[in-house]
Design brief:
mainly alpha; two-stranded antiparallel ribbon
Length: about 230
């Protein structure tokens, strides 16, 4: 079975974001093919995609390496998100489907419940799903893709603390969904901008770990089709 380059790309990106591959570290096709149990062809395609996304750089006579964003580039990521997430929420108010609303409301209910119980790890995942669904509700594949890429890069560059008042944070999510449900684009935009601004204080820049790459193998999911 030929493994899709998209699956390999996802696996490499996840390992870069989680710090398995250190910033500036070299990435060889042979090393990656062995780690993920695939041929070098999908690895080569995946590296090209990751280079276009900014996770990988190719150096002349040195091959592919994990990128090394500067602190200014990391700060720019948060600025871009602060501009694009409110736009996505405004578009969602105009284009969302009932299916989107159902999922968003369900996530808010779960988030509020977990917040009251103090279940922080669940809240982290639920928050990610909430913002991903809100982006999808924008009805703009290009905007959704940009926001997804920003979330990956922010997770790569920043550690994010849980808010001290998690119940209030999830009340903000609920207010955004209410505005989206009413079709109030300007209120959805304003509430999302305020929510993004308040979350800035929770972000701490990660310092590069110059340790060794972990050697455990990561077999790529091959069930998603052909490349």
């Amino acid at each position: 079975m030929r493994v899709p380059a998209q699956s390999v790309c996802t696996a490499i990106r996840d390992d870069i974001v989680s710090g398995v591959f250190e910033r500036g570290g070299r990435l060889t096709e042979e090393q990656l093919a062995r780690r993920y149990g695939v041929s070098r062809v999908p690895v080569r395609e995946a590296l090209r995609t990751l280079e276009s996304e900014g996770f990988v750089v190719t150096r002349r006579h040195a091959g592919a390496h994990v990128a090394e964003p500067t602190e200014q580039e990391a700060a720019d990521l948060l600025d871009m998100r602060a501009l694009l997430e409110p736009l996505g929420a405004a578009r969602a108010a105009q284009r969302r489907t009932e299916a989107h609303l159902k999922v968003l409301r369900g996530l808010v209910r779960l988030g509020q419940e977990r917040a009251r119980r103090g279940q922080g790890e669940d809240l982290r995942s639920l928050g990610g799903w909430f913002h991903e669904t809100l982006a999808q509700a924008s009805g703009s594949p290009a905007l959704t893709a940009l926001l997804t890429q920003l979330r990956h890069k922010i997770a790569w560059m920043y550690a994010v603390d849980q808010p001290t008042h998690a119940v209030e944070a999830w009340s903000e999510h609920g207010a955004i969904v209410d505005a989206v449900a009413r079709g109030d684009a300007e209120r959805a935009r304003a509430l999302t901008a305020l929510h993004a601004e308040r979350s800035l204080a929770l972000h701490r820049l990660k310092r590069p770990d110059r340790g060794r790459v972990r050697v455990s193998q990561h077999v790529v999911n091959t069930a998603s089709g052909q490349n």
